[in-house]
Amino acid sequence: MELDEIVARHIGREGPLLPILHDVQAAAGFVSEEAIRDIAQALNLSRAEVSGVVSFYHDFRRTPDPRPAIRLCRAEACQARGSEALAAHAERVAGERVRVGTVYCLGLCTVGPNAMVGDELHARLDEGAVSALIGAM
Amino acid sequence: MTLVRIPDDALAVACGADRVARRFEELGATVERVSSWGMHWLEPLVEIDGIGFGPVGVADVEGVLAGGSDLSVGRIEDHPFIASQTRLTFARAGKTRPLSLQDYAATGGWKGLERARAMTAEAITAEVTASGLRGRGGAGFPAGIKWETVRTANGVRKYIVCNADEGDSGTFADRMLMEGDPFVLIEGMAIAGLAVGAAKGFVYIRSEYPHAVRKMEAAVRLAAPLVAPFEIEVRVGAGAYVCGEETSLLNSLEGKRGEVRAKPPLPAHEGLFGCPTVINNVLTLAAIPYILAEGAQAYADYGMGRSRGTMPVQLAGNIRFGGLYETAFGATLGELIGIGGGSASGRPVKAVQVGGPLGAYFPPSLFDTPFDYEAFTARDGLIGHGGVVVFDDSVDMAAQARFAFEFCAAESCGKCTPCRIGAVRGRETIERVIAGDPDGLALVADLCETMKFGSLCALGAFTPYPVMSAITHFPADFVVEERV
Ligand SMILES: Cc1cc2nc3c(=O)[nH]c(=O)nc-3n(C[C@H](O)[C@H](O)[C@H](O)COP(=O)(O)O)c2cc1C
Ligand code: FES
Question: Which one of A128, B72, B147, B443 is most buried, counting C-beta atoms within 10 A?
């Protein structure tokens, strides 16, 4: 989707910046300097303001990373079910090819360790399941 | 034809419920997707004529349909995990199709809103105050008093904001509510709107909950004509734990960095876009329809002391029977862990963290603590959002203390120094202790005092709870000789 379309879709809402950034991130995989400039102009904000918002939130990236990504939950309830050992295993299997990220809690705290790939959730993971997930990416 | 009921919430789906549902359909069954009962160890939990089977995998489907499956758990409603609960907020869990307006109305939906429409705004807030309902997001502030403040505040525009950021590890009740019974939250928000004179509401949902976002968006569309002229909009967070803090959340909704605001002014006076704003947790708002429909006293009859009503407790982590356990305040921590069947690993339970990443770690000697705001405070702990995370004896409490600082450092909004710098120093110091520096612990204690009293919000101010409770209750884990 083009940036103007994204902006047009949200500009009438109260507090449109986050919805715009979400759509830009989803469409491009990151929020570029040009996007920041154009959004700032459209919303009548300074580039520094928009830039500050982008950098504040973990969900927004400022540089592209074309690799497929998996996010493992590393919060307490998953730690209690073995997420730390599993994370080390995931890093080994992923190597440079797949990005292994961290998420703190997916709300599945009874069936961990858990992971998220895109919007898809995976529960009750063990080493075999993680290897298979990463292998298929 | 056999009617098979299978949950469609994020947890059931993550455990394979969609594949199981497809298999049932392939074999000629009619599948109805419903909410989850909250018995997570049995997910995907399949229901046929009231009888439960779980956890069902694709390969088990044929056996379940043939009637000879050993996965049967008997009548779900009679299962001790369900039968021993008091489900007021989660009354529909497992029983209705989440997006069916018909199911919702048939199970008492909209009765609270109907009654509220016939009342004055003042009478509604009085009813909520009389129920004793306290905020379920963590701080336990009386909901009725907050509403009354917003009702009497001057403002042309006012807002209802539902805090669905649910960032605490070990908690999932907001998620289950939004994915399983979204209309009850919408009804609660509409009642809040009537009570304070707000025409618009926002639900701010964390981005880690894509299923809940989709469900709520669909539910809001379906229910729009029923709650009009009140309007609701769903907004998605962007991966910042601190945005669960109410003023940070408001900044985020406004499109700003999610930095914490200094209080006063309270959001009730100057909240979203500077307007008087009710900000409540999902569970707080979802408790409202029951209170309006059945009356304040019916709700207040449950509970202990100043903790009235029920709490949807979330039994999580290394626990055998994990899930959602709604019960009147007053059950002890030990009783709750007993209901959860002890650790999933079968090893002894060593510690339990209650109240999320900012909550204290309790050892078994404190398991007689009743679930009650004041009782937990008296023991230097907190109930928070009701998450109970169980750890077995393989846990290293020094590592947990280190993690508490690390989490605070990663999630600090950066606005105040005690939190931003303190967390980083704290992690370094715990690492020195782990490496064998005996003087480190006194430094950690000092640092915790500074964070506790100098931080702008509870992120920095409460990180000392997990840290100091780990040090106080599990001293052996901080002695290097014993660790090797
Ligand atoms: C760091 C931090 C994170 C918080 N996260 C949440 C949250 O995810 N959900 C929530 O309802 N309240 C959260 N709170 C509490 C809110 O600030 C606020 O007390 C709550 O939204 C008020 O609603 P209630 O009275 O219904 O609980 C958090 C507080 C802090 C300090
Ligand atoms: S702690 Fe991992 S899902 Fe909640």
Answer: B147
